[in-house]
Fold these 4 entries.
Entry 1:
Amino acid sequence: MDKSAIFLGFFIVFLVFMVVSAVVAGMKNKQGNTGATTEYFLGGKNIPVIVLAMSYCASAVSAGSFIGDPGYMSTIGWPYYWFTIFTIGGLVIPGLFIMRKLRLQSERYGCLTITQYIGDRFNSKWIKVYISAVMVLCYLFMMVSQFKGAAVLLETYTGVNFNIGLIVMAVVVAFFVNYGGLRSVAWTDFFMGCFMVILSLSLVVVCFSHVGWYGGLHAGLEATHPDYNVIYQTGAGATFPWYSIPCIFLFSFLVMFSQPYITARYIAMPNISRKSVGTFLIISLITGLLFNTMVQLGLVGAVLFPEADPDYLTVTMSVEFFPTVIAGVAMIGFFSAMLSTASSILLVCSQAIGQDIYGQVKKNADEKSILRVTQISTVVIIIGIVFFNIYKTPDLLQVFVLLSLAGVGSMLCAPTFLGVLWPKARREGAWCAVISGPLSYFLMDTILGWPFPIAMGLCAVPPFVLMWVVSVALNKTKGEDAEMVRMATIDPDTYFAES
Amino acid sequence: MQAWMIMLGCQFTVVAISAVWVLIWMRRPKDAYDLMLDKLNAAAEKKAEGE
């Protein structure tokens, strides 16, 4: 049987699985009793911890670790790996400080999304609208690149035309997100995550054995790309100088952690006890480590397949090294990586439009109409993604991903961290943070032309500084906003009396 | 020392610190936040059973 036909068969099974899980999740949403929006946006808050943890990692990792990051690494070398090193810890450690308080505060405010939390925490409907608008714009770029990646992948494996593959996947993802909400996204992420674990382990072992493990990799790079065998770059115009390392740390622990499609899982956790939070974080750590090991395959690909397209090195290696059936399973892993993140982001963007823009602007909007607008937004966004991909396909995938992450993360990191941890943080400070974050990134990256690892990390600093300075100054001159401080303070003596 | 040794060493260090930190945090005695969350969890379970 022709290889392409086998791969197409695998892909059809994968799509059917997504559709079935959406239908099952949608039926469960209808049976749930926590309210239509809570069922849709938070899975009724009864999704098991292991499913949420795997979903957390699968969404965070995305096509980045499996395709984009190895591709980028194959053009830069070991210095790029600092992103991987710090991202693993950055997804876990801040959770210890943030998770429980965020959950207690969001229960008090009745929040379903991180945008809603920031709006309620700082008592500003317009901050919700602003954040939602910027987030949708930034994430649109990321989704364009995820879908492009998936369509090119499909064409590479099965021969299905790019445009047709794009439209098929767009329709399936739109149905899957619209009908099932977070429940279908989380459960499918879980199963996709399992495929991704199998893919990571098998592809890393096979590819490294072909190159001669780390000794062979080092020797291969010395022969072909000796400038890759360094931990930071030197010389004028270096993208990863030594001072990019602390910037990448800042990016991972502040900017990456604050992505709404990641923090959505914290609000959705059914049971916030030390045991369940710890379990969630440990599972995230282990699966994150496994997935991120794939990034090293960029260097293996640079040695073994120097002529291959950087964005598809891992795909090339899976087709070259695996028997057809195993390559088919690997293909499912790649699609899982892309579509899990694309669906999580799509859900967050639709939520932002339905809940945080429409729900704020339209007075007395009921749950049903919010859900309807959310679902219509999903379809409109998908149409935009397909249009953009057909008429203005982006080049290197990872560029768009990084732009989106930095834009949204720099906007949200200060209001999230300071909002949770500092009851005296003020609304005016939050406004300064959400405006200065994306502006800082734009200034550093585009106007000043700083290397992207430095811009992506340092763009988190101005929002924190501004939010702190403005809040302290206004608290001193105008006095504290007593009501806001009271609502943000988690006091065991008064919490339940007031909830 | 080769670059891969340093990078993988750093990765191992970050993962080990993270894992140990989480495990120690998990085993610490309950604080006020834990008690509040227990109450919330219990209330949510009661509500789910009642309906």
Entry 2:
Amino acid sequence: MGKIKSAIITAIIALATLALFLFGVISCALPGGVNRYNSILASINLGAELSGDAYSVLLPEGVISAEEYDFTVAEEGEEADDMKQSYTQAPGGSFYVENTLLNSFASDGTADTADERALAFEELSQKIAADADIVAARLSGRNLTSYSVGVLGGYALRVAVPTNFSYAAYSGNDTGARSEYITTAGTTISHLSLGGELTLRNNEYGVRDRVSAAQNAAGTTETRNILGATLRVEDIFQSVTYYAMGGTYAVRINLTEQGAEEISRVSAYIADTSTTSDQTIRFYVGETSVIDLTCESQITGRTFYIQCSTEDLARDYAALLNSAATGNSLEYVYEYNDIVYQTTPGGENTAMFLAIAALAVLAVIIVAAVVRYRGLGATFALMSLLFAGAMIAIVYLVGVTLTTMGVFMAAMCYMLFAGCNFWSFEQIRRESDAGRTIQAAVKTGYKKTFTGILDMHIVLLVVSVLLTLICGGELAACGMIMLIGTLASYLLHWFTRFSWYVTMSLARDKYKFCGFSREAFDEDE
Amino acid sequence: MNKLRFSSKMHLFIIISVAVVAVGLIMGLVFHFTSGSFFNWGGDYASYRTVEVQYSVHEITAEEVMEASDAAFEENGVSYFTYVTSGASTESRVEFRFTASNDPEALTRAAAAINEEVGMASDNTGFATAYNNLTAHFNSNRDIMYAGIAVAAAVVFQFLYFLIRYKFTMAVAAFIADVHNLAIFYALLAITRTMVSSSVIALSAITVVITMICCAVMFDRMRKNFRTDEYKAMPSFEQSDLSAQAAFPAVSVICGGLFVAILLALAVTAIAGGTAFGLFMPCLCALIAVVSCWYGVAFFTPSVYSRLKQRSDKYAASKSVKYVGAKKAVKNAE
């Protein structure tokens, strides 16, 4: 390759790589001091162990916290007297339970003895623990990188989900996004802790039931249960799953054979504007309307889709409806006051120092490469920056949530990239030492390492696909990062060879450029 | 090249591995029956007790709350394993987390003492609650199951890939290496009582991945060696030793590189002090995973493979002996 052509290509690659890397990792204030550029790395969503989580304490109807009780009683007056008469302190002392709720557990309808109350508390606690199991299963189906559901003091649920703050939001450089993240986390908690059974409802068609009566009492529009009392939701629905295609998000409803017939019959009636003016099938969980399906025609297949406005909503609805549709309904309706953001137990600067550690690994390997391979090392350094920049950009674009293990996985993929290149370089050095020309040494060296490197990448690629497809949460995110890293490693391995070829054309002494030596043979030998 | 002879040391390596796994199993079982947990499960999985302190930031500072709380816990003989803070601009909260072994009565007394201290200091705006019932966390039960399925699928895939790409004996050796390294990894976790969090579950997959890479390096070297007649003529033990010796530096560089990178992360964690201590346990677990893989692939696997190869060679020889003379002619005619 000619030197001018080589210089131009080298300059273009170097500029593009540096631009990608700098935009990838450097955040800075913009002129004027009002706006700020947040780097791609600072815009990637972080897992709970890096950015903390949002939690809420959910109290079943009829249960209040000791704090609320003490506060009201301390105020004195009619309300305080009423509370003293209506509530009994639960074992442990952290909560008070309404007597009517306790009475519902007593065989004679009144839990007036100590034994009856103890038994009622025990049963209430067991039911709340069973609800915690169901909420945990819903969160597991929501595909979060982490979550926790705890039974607090025996009579309340404590549900925590990751805020998924980006580092910009976490560090306070993007306050607007911060409140959005917390709102999203709160919405997830509120959706997945909805109590009551799943019903399909319409304003005109169907039968009146307990829910419609409650709706009337609240002064809202009356709705009717379109499935009737003889059918159970488990007989209608097979599963509900999350679906996304080209930026459109939806929940996919899979019906049983019986369900398909029933929905076909019902949808035919509702879609007919001459028989009813309400063309909507409303999915209710308990007394809350979750999602609506507008019927413009009869539904004939065993699968149909309901579009959602955002990915988070689609995932929430899919997890909730799948749980409720398969008969896993919460026994109680839960209420909460606020969504609380709490810092990560691993320390507030975990994310920053993890990034520093990853950059330190990158720097150490680059320095080692430059020391050992000189000009070739500099070419490798450029490719390393390209690898880092590409990884950051792709992880951001794909929307993978970054966790500690995700960063570890990315660092491992970088080390795979570096290891494969160093293996080839060393092989080429050996060939060069044996007296081959640099072109012949490169050709033979890459040929000799080809199968080994291909084997490693194939194995890793398949493992990453298995992790992504089979696992959920943090492991699936790790699998996705490994998939991106493995592909980037293999493609950039060959791009390094091309870059080496381009940059080496500029050098007068090609052996010196690579830090290699060539055994000199006397012409007489 | 080094002069390490792995083939003749199989019994030694098996004894070492069995001893490590046995000690891990015994320690795990002892802790299982005494404190109810085989591993030292972290906050992601284990139940814990909590004491929550709420206070007004206008009346009392976070440092004063921490000071009062620490004094109350010390006085009542309880100690928390971690704490998290939360809150808005006016009201803040600190949640102290305690292992299940802490006395609930002592926690209640400590919470009452904090109430008194924080209440006095903050003009009765503070409030401490001890949630003494176990906070049972259900994090990722299903995720652990799926992770297990994924790791098992990866191991089976590696076996099939090596079976197609290399030889049956190599595939079996790689399979044994995976199982061995995972067993050593979990045994070392049980022995060191390193806190097991969801990150560690991901490390199981990484253990398998490192094992796969190192096995691929070693068997690739062996496959290349088989192209020479001199190598083919060697006894199976020597063949294994020669390839293992040649692959040893590469395997050591892979594991050593990871080891150094993790040490670097630990050094950064140490510099960060308490503000990034969440990185310490995953790094420690990663170090254990890398050491398990290095020992498993560099020492244990070549020694086991040499026996497999020896048996395989014997079997091949006995099979070829079956068809000699007239029998061979008949076989060829078939």
Entry 3:
Amino acid sequence: MFSSLMPQRKEFFEMLAAHSEQVVAGANATLRLINNLGDGKTDLAALVKEVNDHEETGDQIKAKVIERLHQSFTTPINRDQIHSLIDDLDMTLNVLQSVANAIGMYNIKQSTVEARELASLSADACMRLNRAVAALADKSRGAETLNLCKEVEEIESKADKVQHRAIAALFQENANVWQTMKMREFYSLQESVLDCCQEAAKMIEEILIENS
Amino acid sequence: MEGLNMSIWTLGVLIFVALAFDFMNGFHDGANSISTIVATGALTPKQAVLFAAFFNFAALWIFQLKVAATIGKGTIDPQFVDYYVIFGALMGALAWNIITWYYGIPSSSSHALVGGLVGATVAKAQSGAPIIWEGFGKILAFIIISPLVGFLIGGFLMVLVAWIFKNRSPYQAAGFFKYAQLFAAGAYSLGHGGNDAQKTIGIIWLLMITAGIATKDVATLPMWVVYSCYFAIAWGTYLGGWRIVKTMGTKITKLNSISGSCASMGGAIALGLATGAGIPVSTTHTITGSIIGVGAANDVKAVRWAITANLLVAWVLTIPASGLIAAIAWWIGTKFL
Amino acid sequence: MLPKRKEFFDLLAAHSERVHAGASALQRLVSSLGVSRQDVAALVEEINMNESSSDKIKADMINLLHKAFVTPLNRDQVYQLTLDIDGIMNTVQDVAMVVSDYGIAEASRASHELAAMTVDACSRLTRALASLNESSRSQETMKLCEEIERIEEKSVAVMYQAIKALFDAEGDEVAAMRALRMQELYARQEKVLRASKKAAQGLEGILLQTA
């Protein structure tokens, strides 16, 4: 009865949702980047910049969340859970940025089927993450949100398999050593995006369990 | 009166047992207020215990002896009381306290005392006639009212504090609450000493009326009784330390310096009101109500309602159970003493 | 039963000092690469010693957390922070291991830079932990944590440029081997900074809580 009289501070949910939108936008830009790699028509630099911009915006939102945590006596969910979730989301965006920049770093000219597959899996996972975060404030949608988290975890294990397949392909005979080295790193970065998504999904699950 | 035939020695022993009961009360839960102070490091355990003991004693100068009067002459008709009744009452209360202590239930020693007194008297009179329903009814009603008032005040304080400190993090507010919790704990210790020491004063007063040493007039009550009761509870608090506090502070809901301050202050205000009105209430129930109120404000799920429900059962059982034991103790007393 | 507040902070401070010492040994190790094999071996040993001493402090802290009735900070967070600090030490040791396992005998400018950044981050972490005991200095602690995070971001850019240089001009087998080695070294060095960032974030979390 008293909890409804406390300051509510719903803006934390809004900020978390805003951050996860940046994650989705970053993942989609990365997907386009990888899909259009080597077609010669797409402005790749512009897409990398787009990812970097989303990361920048994400950083700003994260800084604001932490600042507000310091300026709020009450929080709608546990303070450390908000902090962990924003860290996880931000980490996802950081790794997406690393993926986008790795194309230049490893001087990758062509994408592969597996790279495209991994990119679309991460876009899928990020989209579900975004929906889960957006529904976090609404307790009646707990089951739905929990389901989204489970799906993110399923996507992650799918990505694991794709990565194995991709690496096996790299080590076939007659492989070019440079191509193998580069792509092995690249795939592992791509897989890290999904690991981060999984971390964030687990955090959301923890929040849901504690607040249901 | 039968009691007059008893020796001064018996009177002395009963007074001693009453004081021991008082001491146990302090030992048991006089330190309830200081758990968060120790936990947050505002005072060392030794300082905190001394602090609580001091304020338990200081209540002597704050409150009038209204609670003592309710126990001493407002619950049962002193005419029916003899040494056996007092013996039964104290034994019933002590036994119930030991049982609840053994099972770790924070029940009320005050209600055990009242239950014991009523139980032994009714056993002797073989009827409910000696019960003064005006006083006893008030005590019964406040079994529900006092935790409720504690709950409301505690929760209200928490909400108030949350709005006052709306734009600061608890970490930043902690500096203020390091001092606020001292104030709250001091106030709570005053309330505890005021209400609980007076119950023993009331019992001894009753004894003295029985023995013909004092009358229903408060002026006839020797001051050493008052001093020794307050001293016993303070000393018990000092020795009982912060051991038992753990249950209260951590089992029902987690407390930090902020919620701890609100809970103690809520308990203090509720106890102060009851003591001022001369109603013997359970300090344990009151602070528990306040802790739950604070917990409910912070987060309803932070309150372990299952434990709370267990507590409620123990509370309701206290008076009948201690009354029954007291009646048996009275019967044994009349046979063997 | 009641440890003094100070014990916790002393342990945290001692722990971060070990890590700082490890980081500075790592910096000297990078400087000695290709200069003196004996020095490199001695410095690897020095790092290993710091690592085992860090393990011991971690064990002491866990022990203290177990027997303490009250802790000056949230128990889980102190535990997590200890793990994070220990994590930095482990990544420092990993770098030393990569140096010997991969037979790295040269240090690039980027490697020097990353090593210097590691020392910067660890010295800030040490200072941040030293001011943790006083809540009046929380602003300072916060600022140090933010700086650590900034350093980590810069280190990513350094690593990026260095790895890009390795892969831009694809060459012969020797170049490929070098790329393989050095990329691993840079990546490991960057991981130290990432671990420092994680500890800094944990510290930020602590500043949000009350005991």
Entry 4:
Amino acid sequence: MTFDVRLRVNERVATIELAGELDASSAGRFHDTIDEAAAAGSIELVIRAEKLDYMSSAGLRSLVFARQKMGDDVRIAVVGAQEPVAHTIRLAGFDHSIDLIDA
Amino acid sequence: MSPRDLTEMRERVDAYPTHRIAGYRVRAGRPFPYGATPVPGGVNFSVYSDRATSMSLVLFERGAPEPAAELPFPAEFRTGSVYAMTVFGLDVENLEYGFRADGPFDPVSGDRFDARRVLSDPYARLVSGRDVWGREPDWNDVYPYRAQVVNDDFDWGDDTPLRIPTEDLVIYETHVRGFTRHPSSGVTAPGTYAGLREKIPYLKHLGVNCVELLPVFEFDELDNPRTNPVTGERLHNYWGYNTVSFFAPKAGYAATGRFGMQADEFKSLVKELHRAGIEVVLDVVFNHTAEGNEYGPTISFRGLDNATYYMLTPDGQYYNFSGTGNTVNCNHPVVRDFVLGCLRHWVAEYHIDGFRFDLAAILDRAPDGTPLPNPPLLEQLAYDPVLRHTKLIAEAWDAAGLYQVGHFPNYGRWSEWNGKYRDAVRRFVKGEPGVAGELATRMAGSPDLYWGRGAAASVNFVTAHDGFTLNDLVSYNDKHNEANGEGNTDGANDNYSWNCGEEGPSASPHVRDLRMRQMKNLMAILLTSQGVPMILAGDEVGRTQLGNNNTYCQDNELSWFDWGLVEANAELLEFTRGLIAFRHAHPVLRNTEHPRGIDSMGSGYPDVSWHGVRAWHPDWADHCRVVALMRCGRHAKGGVPDDHVYVAVNAHWEPHDMELPQLPDGQAWHLFADTGALMPYGMHPLGEEPLLEHPGRYHLGPHSAVILVGRPVPTTQATQATQKEMAP
């Protein structure tokens, strides 16, 4: 059960790279990182999910948290989510508040 | 004061445990709201029981067979009959909870406490246990329907309930699973909220602006002991009229139910339907619960406070006005709060636009079963601030003979499923004598039943989930419910159906043509009647249940919407679609006031006039099978000038030459639809209706209906159109 999260902010575009398994036990770290991205005044949040193996319901809820935290004006994109993760995001309707983008 | 100060202050007040119970940091909770509510640092749990002698909060890790902890409520955590506790430091994503109530087991006095049971929270916002439809559960689970804590963080954007005027609705009754479960649906997640969401373009194309969903409150689809006598397959509780948990959306209807995300998926469906201009009405079942009678399972209410939640006889037995074993004690003050709280929850949290109340007559019975003249629950619902703009629709009868169609206590707010409309239209169209007068009354919005309440009080329907489909109504004289495993004794016997000469599927072109015409006749009457039309999903494409009129247990192709019919029965689909568009385009069909038969607009015509084979001479004799009415466009809803609309229905087996009422100078009759005509789909495109060949007469075929529009026409255009009509 490994999880890794890294944040880069470049010209007000925040990029969060996720790796491993995002579940209830790791969602808190993801939230802290989103907080940092918001505090940096980002106008766009890119969540790179290519290396994310698994996302539980807690992880999916983190996308709602990100939307709330960043505000409506900030574009949020989830890039490269593996198909099971992307599929669940679409079924739950979260794809209406974030952009799902292939890698 | 800065936001930071406010946060700190809130933390000082709320997030301070005072006790430690079973290793958990807790403090006395707040009695309201009931259920589990996230609060800063923890979760507030609150539950009512008047007769319990002790109460514990039972916590499980998600899916674990045994509880992780049990936290007895100390005496000081009880206020009146409410036990409340805030528990800190819980991992809500991985938490399931219930209650254990102890107290007397004395059925005669109404008490049935059983401390061996873990009880589901009546106010649970999310319930696990039946997360994937039909999946075999662990039948020995000590806690089969597990309450969960929900996050209310859905992004609704600017969505709100749509508040479409009731009289403008075209309701489409459907079943979440049945709508897309069929392999032909082509959706990503068949049988789910997400699947239904994918079919919104179809609903928009059809033109309906309201979907009424069969029960979506959590129920147990496996709650049916019967098997199909022919195939041996398990039968289900498919329709879902057996609620387990009233505040929780059915998890098995969500593709994401296994992730516990059914609330999000359902909200997303509601939001997208609203975006498409389609309201959502829920079919709600407050008359009974899934606990059944004394032999049924103890899930929640029975173990928390049996005497409060159920109507009991003087010797403690369950009254059975619902026909399912128990009856919810709806006019008990505590239960009234429960029902009201539940409906508010669905409106506030899920943006639901309205409710249809199953066996609603039960809602006006007193705790001893007597019908009340002024039932407090119904009054409360009618005047509730949160429900102020919510549609309230009653199925105004119950299973114990209380039939209130036309006189359901309504407070100017309630509409009713008009069962008399259904029966009169069916009887007339099948050709029964002596129904012409009643048909006229029903098409006029049933003023005999709803005078003073407005025509929108009448939800008109010919078919609904309970009974024959439209296709079966014209294909079967008798029900064929053998697959239900009850020897064909279940389901209604009075169907007023006619098979058009052959029972069941027919290869005869004559029979098939007649059936198509009859289905179109029924749709034409329904969609040109005053009141609110409701269509059963699939009727627009001629869905069949092979004569089964009670498919409550059939989770299979008998019940599912076969999407292959969209192409195969395009004729009926396009006809229905055209009728819906016609209704939307003509406010004269959607008047809320009942016609008075007088000219209140100075148009020279009464609002509605009745005709027979001869204009202005309706024939109400028993043998008469022709009814024609004209609605004057100057009397249209809201004072918007509309066309005149003439509708004639011939249920006779002979054709009739109808003399048409004369229109004002400069206007002429145009043909919109004729169910017996050979033109494509039996109708002309809206706004392109051609002039009639003969301005004052129309040849109406046997078992046919015609819809004409009367509107101004320039002389030159009239000449051209007449020539076109007459061309070979």
